[in-house]
Structure prediction request, 123 residues.
Amino acid sequence: QLQLVESGGGLVQPGGSLRLSCAASGFSFYTYAIGWFRQAPGKEREGVSCISTTGRRADYADSVRDRFTISRDNAKRMVYLQMNSLKPEDTAVYYCAAVRSLICDLSNEYDYWGQGTQVTVSS
Prediction:
């Protein structure tokens, strides 16, 4: 059974850091590009970052570029999102998602989604 399980969310002060993890099982992980998305209350879901199957290419939303870093470990079937210099506007539920594509594109229709992990940035 295909599963994506996010972890690592929590409450952090502005300027702090968190690392989100996404554990994948039940599918050929190395053939799927992985994306991170977020949805804040009352707002539409937005793409945050994505990474290609090999991990060599990544893309970021302008709002998180230079603050967030995505990475993947195909041997462990894991994807990570390192989030630094967090701002209150980063508060949202963060989801990882998978799409059967070699390349990374946040505008793709992603096939599989996790349940999400809450990130709250507040003093």
